[in-house]
Amino acid sequence: MSKLESCRKGFPNPYTAFINNKDIMDFDAVVESFKVSGSAVSNSFYQGKNRTTFHELSYAVGMKVITLSLFFSAPTRRRLTLNKSAVDALMVGKIELHMPDGFYYDAVLTSAGELQMLGVEQNQLIALCTYTFQGIQRDELKMVTGNTLLAEGTAPHMDCRLTCTATANRATMQVGSVTFSGIHTGDVVVADGIDGVLTVNGSPVVASFTKLPYLVPGEQTIVCPETLTVEYYPTYI
Q1: Cβ atoms of residues 208 and 142 within 8 Å
Q2: Domain 3-137 adopts which CATH fold?
């Protein structure tokens, strides 16, 4: 059994990763190493002249830097190049990485290195390539029923999707941070902070809001007269 074949047993393991649900081992590649930085953080604050206290004005949590190095193996240089090209093609645009640490990353490629030829092993050419991404670290989508929930994750704001079915006619109805108008019994109302849309019975509507729905880590109660279904990705700083 080859090293590539033996790596296919189970996930997560230290040798494989998935790009948009495609196993890199399908392209004769394995993980050589990977590294994930902390999240970028920026702050704005005010300190008066000769004052010993200061006041935070704003803060923002950005993306992590993900460095992923892959071994490629193939019998010919052409096949090596084709395998790398196939993996590169998977990385176009916004992608989902599932890494050996068990986390998912919504990521964008910022650098795709060149193949570095390392030698020959068991009649296979071996090459190394390093990729760099910026991304958000998260778990799989979670779905919770109820207006009070304990949100997992450590990011200070986690976009969420709120769904409910109206049990009465309502001139206005608050769903989290969004106020809908003209709701009728049986209407399915969605305030979607993940995809950034507001719908009633699947059709986009105009509603009043200052911010789209999001969760904070820990226990919280979302304002709504109906029972909510809450969907979100636990996200980590």
Answers
A1: no
A2: Elongation Factor Tu (Ef-tu); domain 3 (2.40.30)
